[in-house]
C-alpha cells in the first residue's frame, strides 16, 4: 500500500469540493472493495475522502411510492429494518445475504452501487425495481446508471446521497453464493412492478443486466415453471475459476425460478 492523504469532510459539499480539487482522490465509505484493492496495489489514489461521518445519509424512510434509503445505510441496517421488510421484503433478504456479519456492518448501499462490482447484489435490486440513484446533482434512473465493469454514470465530483426504491407488487431474489466471498456466482432479482415485469441478473458477466427472455416469459405466467427451463446462450456469460459460462447460463434459469418462488412465498 502506497502513501496517501486522508480527509474527513463534515458535509457533502465539502466532500464534493475535495474530490474536485484533490487530483486522483477517491471517496471511501465502508471500504469493502477499495481497501483490498489498495492493499493489493491495484489502486493508488493520492487521497482518500472519508464519507462515513457525513450527517443525514443513514436514513431509511417511507415514501408513498416506496422507500428512500440514504447512501450510508449499512447492509445490516437494511436487512433488519422493519420498514424495508414491510414495503420491499426481497430487498431486506438480499441485504441479509451480503458477505458476512463484518461486511454487512461496514459496507454501505451507496458504496455498493457506486462501485458496481459485476457480482454485487444491490445493483440487481436497483435495476429490477426501477430505482433512482440520487446524487448531489441529480437523480439517475437505474437503467441509465450501470454502464459496465466497475463503471457508472457518476461524474468525477459526483457522490451518491441516496437511493429511491419504488415498492413492487411482489419481488424475489436468489443467488448461488461464492463460498469464500459470498458474492453472487449468478444472482437474479425478479420484480412485478407497476410498469410490468423486470428481471435483473448479476454475477454473470461484466455487470448487472436486464434479462428480456425471463421478463417476457413471466409476463405471460408469473410462476417458477415459466423460466425454469429457459436456456440463455452462454456467449455473454463469464468464465473464470468459479464457474464456466455454460454453467452460469444454466444457473441463470435456476436462480430465476427460485427468485420467482421467493416472490410468491
TrEMBL record:
<feature type="domain" description="FAD-binding PCMH-type">
    <location>
        <begin position="1"/>
        <end position="170"/>
    </location>
</feature>
<dbReference type="GO" id="GO:0016491">
    <property type="term" value="F:oxidoreductase activity"/>
</dbReference>
<keyword id="KW-0285">Flavoprotein</keyword>
<dbReference type="GO" id="GO:0071949">
    <property type="term" value="F:FAD binding"/>
</dbReference>
<dbReference type="Pfam" id="PF00941">
    <property type="entry name" value="FAD_binding_5"/>
</dbReference>
<keyword id="KW-0560">Oxidoreductase</keyword>
<dbReference type="InterPro" id="IPR016169">
    <property type="entry name" value="FAD-bd_PCMH_sub2"/>
</dbReference>
<protein>
    <submittedName>
        <fullName>FAD binding domain-containing protein</fullName>
    </submittedName>
</protein>
<dbReference type="InterPro" id="IPR051312">
    <property type="entry name" value="Diverse_Substr_Oxidored"/>
</dbReference>
<dbReference type="InterPro" id="IPR036318">
    <property type="entry name" value="FAD-bd_PCMH-like_sf"/>
</dbReference>
<dbReference type="InterPro" id="IPR002346">
    <property type="entry name" value="Mopterin_DH_FAD-bd"/>
</dbReference>
<keyword id="KW-0274">FAD</keyword>
<dbReference type="InterPro" id="IPR036683">
    <property type="entry name" value="CO_DH_flav_C_dom_sf"/>
</dbReference>
<dbReference type="InterPro" id="IPR016167">
    <property type="entry name" value="FAD-bd_PCMH_sub1"/>
</dbReference>
<dbReference type="Pfam" id="PF03450">
    <property type="entry name" value="CO_deh_flav_C"/>
</dbReference>
<dbReference type="InterPro" id="IPR005107">
    <property type="entry name" value="CO_DH_flav_C"/>
</dbReference>
<dbReference type="InterPro" id="IPR016166">
    <property type="entry name" value="FAD-bd_PCMH"/>
</dbReference>
Amino acid at each position: 500500500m502506497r502513501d496517501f492523504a486522508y480527509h474527513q469532510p463534515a458535509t457533502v459539499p465539502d466532500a464534493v469540493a475535495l474530490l474536485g480539487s484533490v487530483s486522483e482522490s477517491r471517496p471511501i465509505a465502508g471500504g469493502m472493495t477499495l481497501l483490498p484493492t489498495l492493499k493489493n496495489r491495484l489502486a493508488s489514489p493520492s487521497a482518500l475522502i472519508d464519507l462515513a461521518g457525513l450527517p443525514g445519509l443513514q436514513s431509511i424512510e417511507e415514501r408513498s411510492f416506496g422507500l428512500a434509503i440514504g447512501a450510508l445505510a449499512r447492509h445490516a441496517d437494511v436487512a433488519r429494518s422493519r420498514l424495508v421488510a414491510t414495503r420491499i421484503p426481497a430487498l431486506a433478504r438480499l441485504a441479509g445475504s451480503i458477505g458476512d456479519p463484518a461486511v454487512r456492518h461496514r459496507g454501505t448501499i451507496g458504496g455498493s452501487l457506486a462501485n458496481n462490482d459485476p457480482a454485487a447484489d444491490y445493483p440487481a435490486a436497483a435495476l429490477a425495481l426501477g430505482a433512482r440513484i440520487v446524487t448531489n446533482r441529480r437523480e439517475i434512473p437505474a437503467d441509465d446508471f450501470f454502464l459496465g465493469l466497475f463503471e457508472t454514470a457518476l461524474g468525477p465530483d459526483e457522490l451518491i446521497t441516496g437511493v429511491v426504491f419504488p415498492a413492487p407488487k411482489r419481488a424475489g431474489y436468489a443467488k448461488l453464493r461464492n463460498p469464500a466471498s459470498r458474492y453472487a456466482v449468478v444472482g437474479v432479482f425478479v420484480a412485478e412492478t407497476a410498469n410490468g415485469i423486470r428481471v435483473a441478473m448479476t454475477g454473470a458477466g461484466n455487470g448487472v443486466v436486464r434479462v428480456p427472455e425471463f421478463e417476457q416469459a413471466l409476463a405471460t405466467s408469473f410462476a417458477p415453471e415459466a423460466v425454469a427451463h429457459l436456456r440463455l446462450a452462454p456467449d455473454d456469460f463469464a468464465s473464470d475459476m468459479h464457474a464456466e459460462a455454460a454453467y452460469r447460463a444454466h444457473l441463470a434459469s435456476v436462480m430465476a425460478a427460485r427468485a420467482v418462488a421467493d416472490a410468491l412465498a
